[in-house]
């Protein structure tokens, strides 16, 4: 692969790739973080951490010398958290209701 192509791939992972992965990680974090005393910590903490997640992905894409490692980290985070979100939306135990609505009635 040419150095010019590697540069464009790196820019893709540092720019729009970092933003997309950070937003998907934010959505997935709400599913695995504990609720806390007020029950909203799992919603607030991902919103507060999005800039930090974005910055970590951006600087990793800019500073890491191995393009494969950049892709592995970004795509791995994306796949894991997108899978969590998809699993939540495709939850068949709720019989047409969102799973969170069924849990809130308990």
Automatic annotation (TrEMBL):
Superkingdom in the source lineage: Bacteria
Residue ranges of the TM segments: 12-32, 44-63, 70-90
Keywords in alphabetical order: Membrane, Transmembrane, Transmembrane helix
UniProt protein name: Uncharacterized protein
Organism encoding this protein: Rhizorhabdus histidinilytica
């Amino acid at each position: 692969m040419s150095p010019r192509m590697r540069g464009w791939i790196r820019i893709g992972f540092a720019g729009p790739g970092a933003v997309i992965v950070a937003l998907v990680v934010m959505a997935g974090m709400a599913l695995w973080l504990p609720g806390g005393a007020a029950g909203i910590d799992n919603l607030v903490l991902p919103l507060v951490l999005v800039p930090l997640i974005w910055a970590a992905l951006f600087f990793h894409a800019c500073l890491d010398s191995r393009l494969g490692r950049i892709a592995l980290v970004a795509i791995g985070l994306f796949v894991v958290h997108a899978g969590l979100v998809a699993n939540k939306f495709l939850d068949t135990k709720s019989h047409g209701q969102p799973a969170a609505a069924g849990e809130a009635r308990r």
